[in-house]
C-alpha cells in the first residue's frame, strides 16, 4: 500500500507537473554520457586549480546575466539565466532562487572590493522590482505571485505547468538585497537603499511573513511540503529584514513576530540523527538531502558560536548531518567506490534521486566543502572546538582516537582536528577538480560512473557555488546577520493563525453505487495530490437530473491553487480527471466564502 501511494504520487507529479527534474529525467533516462572532454587528472595542485577555476567561474557567472552576458543573448538586464542550454534540458529561464544565490555571491564580492559589479547589482534590483509586479500562475503581486519559481528571460510570466509555488525565492532574494542595502547605508547610499532597494525587500519579507507556514515545492522542484532550506532561508531573511526596517524607519509587518516561530518550526526537521529535509509530505525518502547542507552554508554567520538551533556550519547537528548526507552517496555512485570513510566523495542531491539517472552535482559537492571551511572559520574565531556526542562520529571518521571534549585553539588536539577537517574539505574541491573538463566549464551534473558532464551546461549556480566555497576557504566571509541575538527558539511553536475561506467544490458526474468522488490538489488541505489524502465529496444532493457531488472545505484565503477531481471505484481503483490541472484562487478575506461549479472531465 505504501509503495503504491508513492508510485501514484510520482505518477501524478509527472502527469500534472512536468518539473525541471522529472520531465527531463524521463526523456534522458536511457542516454549515456560520452566522455568527450579530456579531464584534467590532477596534474596541477589544488591551489593552482582553484585560482584558475575561480577566474573562469566569475566569467561563467557574468556570461549568463543579461543584458550583455555573452552566452545569453536576449536576456533582460539583471536577469540571471540558469544556463544557456535551451534543449534537454531547457534552462533558459530566470529562477528566483538561482538568481538570488548568484547575486548573494556577487554582492559579497562587491562588498569585498570588486566595485566593477555595481552596475550589475543595480540592474538586478530593477529586474526584481519588475518581476514582483508580473502576475503569473502562482498569483498576482499581493496574492502569492512572488512564490512563482521562474520567469522567461525577458521577464514575462512562464505559464506552463511547473512545481509551484516555491517559497524560498522571496527570502533568498531579500537576503541578497539586504546585504546590498546595508552596504549602501554604511557608504552614503541611504536614499538609494530606502527608495530603490527597500521596496523590493519589503515585498519579499511580507510574502515570507505571510506564507512561511504553508506548504510549497522544495528547492529541487519535486516535493510539495515543508522544505528545511525554505524555512532556514525564511528565518534568516526575517531576522535581518526586521533589523533593516528599523534602520530605515520603515514598517516590516509581522517580520519580528514571525522570525522566532519560523525558528521554532525549523527545529522539528531534526530527527535525532540528521535533518529530514522535507516534512509535511510523505515522499518516501530518507530525508538525507544536500538541501540541509545548503541551508547551513546559506545561514552561516561568522559571529555565531556553533548554534544547533540555526544549524550553523560548526554546530554538532550540522556536522552529524554532513556525515549522514555525504555518507549516503558513498555506495550509490561507482566513482565513489573504494574511497575510505573520512575521505571526500562526489555528492549529489539525495541518494534516491532519479533525475538524469541520479548523478552527483558540482554545487552540492562544493557545498560539502563550503560547510567545513565555514566551520573552520567559526572555530578559529571562537578560539576552541567542541566535540560532543552528536558530532563525535563525524570527527571519528577523521581522527579515530578523538574523544568528546572542548579543545582550545593551539592545543595539539585542536590542531589535529582542524587540519583533518581542512584536508577533508579540500578533498571535496579535489573531487570537483578531478571531474572538471580542462576548459573549466561546470555543467549541472557529472556522471556517477565516468565523471563526464551531464545535463545543463555552464550552470550559473555551479559557478556561484564554486566561488562561495573558495571565499570561505580563504576566510572571506559575509557580514553577520545577527544570528547570536536570534538563535533561541520559543519553547512552544505556533503556526500563523489560519485565515481561511470556505470553498465549496461542486462537480457534476454520473456515478454508479460504490463509486466516490474526491478532490485533491496542491494544498495541504487537499492532500498535496496524494489520492489517499484527497477530500471526499458528498452525494447527498445527487439526483438523476442533477448528478451533483459537493464538499465545503476551509482553505487558505486569497491563495492560487491547482486541483483535480478523482473517482475511486468500488474495488479501490483511482481514476483521474483529464489534464490540464484546474486552477483557481480561493476567496479573499478570513471567513469569506466561494463556490466552484465544475463538470467532470
Ligand atoms: C506550521 O507551523 C506549525 C508550528 O510550528 C507546524 O506544526 C506545522 O507543521 C507548520 N505547517 C506548515 C505547512 O508549515
UniProtKB/TrEMBL annotation:
Annotated Gene3D superfamilies: 1.50.10.10, Immunoglobulins (2.60.40.10)
Molecular function as annotated in GO: glucan 1,4-alpha-glucosidase activity; starch binding
Active site positions: 218, 221
Region spans: Disordered: 577-601
Residue ranges, compositional bias (Low complexity): 584-595
Keywords carried by this UniProt record: Carbohydrate metabolism, Glycoprotein, Glycosidase, Hydrolase, Polysaccharide degradation, Signal
Chain residues that bind substrate: 162
Enzyme class: hydrolase
EC number of this enzyme: 3.2.1.3
Domain CBM20: 495-601
Family in the record: Belongs to the glycosyl hydrolase 15 family.
Listed name of the protein: Glucoamylase
Species of the source: Sporormia fimetaria CBS 119925
Lineage: Eukaryota, Fungi, Dikarya, Ascomycota, Pezizomycotina
